[in-house]
Write a structure and sequence with these properties.
Layout (H helix, E strand, L loop, with lengths): L1 E4 L7 E4 L9 H14 L1 E4 L6 H8 L14 E2 L2 E8 L2 E2 L2 E2 L20 E10 L2 E2 L2 E2 L3 E5 H6 L3 H7 L3 E4 L1 H9 L11 H6 L3 E4 L1 E3 L6 E3 L6 E4 L4 H15 L5 E4 L6 E5 L3 E5 L10 E8 L6 E2 L1
Parallel strand pairs: 2-3
Antiparallel strand pairs: 1-2, 3-18, 4-5, 5-20, 6-7, 8-18, 8-20, 9-10, 11-17, 11-19, 12-13, 12-16, 14-15, 14-21
The structure holds succinic acid.
């Protein structure tokens, strides 16, 4: 396999000369995981995967998660969520608005998310250009660029994350078909807190673990000060120099590290411009996460 880093960004490498439908040796997997820790986002172009092959590759990274709002999944694979704007007989076949604002997968969970993997089956195009890109921002580059005074001030603090924040953000969008979360779904995902700075378990780098989608409060600060600091951190972390934008091609497999990145699904395509991606998510259960 060949690892080709993105020349001008702190994120993303393309991995070529590998067929993900075949079983991976432990050595090849270690090479991929170490590239993921260095680059945060890996793309594998021109793959052809059955659901079983995608699941087998995804679960090399850790225990697979089944989303609590899992209305749409691959038949027979509850851990494989369908993201799509396609409707059959008027009914959606997948989540139409998943991830359409900056966030980190599973920051709201007691066990944080590790990798997310998407496999592109259909990609919308207009005038020959791909639409529906996914953007990523590096949480390690964002931490490094914080003023020292801010690093010292926030060191040791914790941030509360709430699943309901992002759900309601999406529900407020025009045309959203999301129902409010049920009481049982709320209870299954109560708000949870994590350190504001984490040491990445593979790269060893310190990351800024906040995101606009789920982070609601810096617990150690008064509410108004917490709001001000969080807003400035949200603005800081999506500055163009920290961002990589992935323009999709059919057959792309993309893996990102949710400790090392935040991401945003760009919703610039219409309902008749078909997008279909299959998604698997792993948890950080393999790691003992420590404060950065
Ligand atoms: C997600 O946030 O998991 C969805 C990303 C995308 O559809 O581009």
């Amino acid at each position: 396999m060949r690892v080709i880093p993105c020349a001008d960004r702190p994120l993303h490498a393309r991995i070529e000369d590998i067929d993900l439908s075949r079983p991976l040796s432990d050595e090849a997997f270690r090479e991929i995981e170490s590239a993921l820790a260095r680059h945060g986002v890996l793309s594998f172009p021109q793959q052809r995967l059955t659901p079983a092959e995608q699941k087998a590759f995804a679960e090399r990274f850790g225990r697979l998660e089944t989303n609590i709002a899992n209305r749409y999944h691959e038949p027979g694979y509850p851990e494989m969520m369908i993201l799509s704007n396609i409707r059959v007989d008027g009914e959606p076949i997948g989540f139409e608005d998943a991830g359409q604002s900056w966030h980190t997968d599973l920051s709201y969970a007691t066990t944080m998310g590790y990798t997310t993997m998407l496999y592109a089956v259909e990609v919308p195009h207009r005038d020959g250009r791909p639409l529906g890109a996914t953007e990523f921002a590096s949480t390690a580059a964002a931490y490094d660029a914080l003023p020292d005074e801010m690093k010292q001030r926030l060191k040791g603090m914790t941030v509360m994350h709430d699943f309901d924040k992002f759900w309601e953000l999406m529900r407020a969008e025009k045309g959203s078909s999301r129902p409010p979360l049920t009481e049982a779904q709320r209870k299954a995902r109560p708000p949870t807190s994590h350190p504001i700075f984490l040491k990445h378990p593979v790269s060893g780098r310190t990351v800024l673990y906040v995101n606009p989608g789920y982070s609601v409060r810096i617990n150690e600060l008064p509410a108004d000060e917490s709001d001000r600091v969080l807003s400035s951190l949200f603005a800081h972390q999506v500055q163009p120099q920290f961002v990589y934008r992935h323009a999709w091609s059919v057959g792309d497999v993309l893996i990102w590290d949710n400790l090392a990145t935040i991401h945003n699904a760009v919703s610039d395509y219409r309902a008749d411009e078909r997008r279909l991606l299959k998604r698997c998510q792993t948890l950080t259960t393999r790691f003992d996460l420590t404060v950065g």
